[in-house]
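Q: Fatty acid desaturase domain-containing protein, please. Structure only.
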Amino acid sequence: MVAFRILNIGKQIRDLEKSWGFQNELKWINLILITLMHVGGAVWCYYYAFPVKWQTFLFASVMYVATGFGVTGGAHRLWTHRSYKANLPLKILLLICFSAAGQNTLQEWVRDHRVHHKFSDTDADPHNANRGLFFSHIGWLMMKKNPEVIKKGKEIDMSDIHNDKLLRWHQRYFTPLKLAFCFILPSMAPVWLWRESWPCSVAWQCFIRYLTVFHSELTVNSLAHAFGYKPYNKNIRPSENRFVATCSLGEGWHNYHHAFPWDYRAAEHGDFFNVGTKLIDFFHYIGWATDLRKASPEMIKSTVKRIGTSRTDEGDDVDLSCRSY
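A: Structure for Fatty acid desaturase domain-containing protein:
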């Protein structure tokens, strides 16, 4: 009888999904957990986020930059695109920072992003922007992958990731590392070091900092594929978006990035908010990062001339040869 009821509930859920017109089945566990994280976080922060000690606020800000760099400087620019090389201490630091960001495993992150670049905004793209802003931002995490995503994902060369002993170790212990560096240790540090109340510390680390980084990174998939201008390749959806670049430590110059994905800067020109590039430059200065790859001015000008545009999103003509972000 119990088994029959479970099967019947499953059928009702599938019927509900079809009636809602979903292209793929929902991942109900993910949907529930993501919803609870946001609703629960809002309630928790309403009661416990304030008053807050200045050290707790500063620590949350530092963790925002550190975990963001783990994603953009580590998972994205180093391991997905191989845009530079890192020595062992930098790799370990990046893995700690990536674990603290609380995202999917590094192997999943790299595979999904390589598929995204190869089949951008098609049915094989995990967060296909043609399916709407909500889907490309967070909805794709609540649904099972499109069969094309799975099919094309199996064709992606992941040998460099699978053959790396350090990354295999990180994959094996990813869950405890994620729990420790994303939630437990950051929440306990303010309590231990400057006697912050534990509910306030949890509010700033497990909800405010974590969810801010989470959504900042997701804007690259959504907002940067919907709003902005396209000076480097007018034929694709990825666009230059200053807001996204600011909150994601420099990942919002997305039209450039899709034109030159192997460029470690992820932008033609740096600005104050391209923190990811500045940090890589710092580690290059101290010898921890080497072989930084970037597109030459001649290559950029040639690409702009072939497939770019000289118009900004406001419609004003600009001289791309001296464009400064």
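A: Brief note, in case it's useful. Confidence is low (pLDDT under 50) at residues 1-7, 16-20, 311-325.
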